[in-house]
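NAD kinase
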Amino acid sequence: MKYSVVAKKDAKSHAVEEKIKERLQSSGWIYDKAEPQLVICVGGDGTLLYGVHQYLHRISEVNFLGIHTGTLGFFTDYTEEELEECLHDVLEKEPVIFESGLLKIKLDNNPNPYYALNEMRVENIVKSQIMDIYVDGEFFETCRGSGICLSTQAGSTAYNRSLGGAVIDCGLSLMQLAEITAIQHSKHRSLGNPYIMMENRHVTMKSETFDTAILCYDHLNVPLEATKEIYCEMSNRKVRFARYRHYSYLRRLKNLY
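Structure:
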């Protein structure tokens, strides 16, 4: 089996990384950073997101496993204290593969799409951002405020949750639209609540100018200068998580608070 390790840049995670390499290589596994079959992410959810984007070019050929040494580990299945159990399971068991869809984001002035496991956000901290929202090509509402967040089921527990969005149960493939610090007054009203929609919807955001706004997708961001339209839909690309033991979604949720 070919594998690689993506680790958080701290001493604790580095020590776990070295133990993993020593144990797996002594068991005949091959460390292959270019073309791994299993990517072991050591850290927290941020480390796993980094690993997903590092291997986005071959996402259908890679499985991911998370070991928690950080502050938040919703995507991780083991803690550093359970490292020996984790390595035993990896070497002795066949994993169950759980797939989570990626959100696809296209800008009208860039032919190359962006992808997000958790969410995409349009954020403007310089001035109020005005944008029109279309769902399946039909005008839905005009938003005024700091921005908008479109999350996946996986991302419902992340930034979306801090906006008062709903946590979506595991196995439901949905998107959720939530405004960021929306401006509501007598001259302008928008929905004012998160909107949960089917996975086959597509959402378009249009504005006369996004020049002072940025597009955030997972932990990454790009400026939106000269962009007029942003198109989002669930893609057919999926992140594959290798589950070597049962770890319930409710247990993951309870770890958040």
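Residues 11-26 form the longest helix (16 residues).
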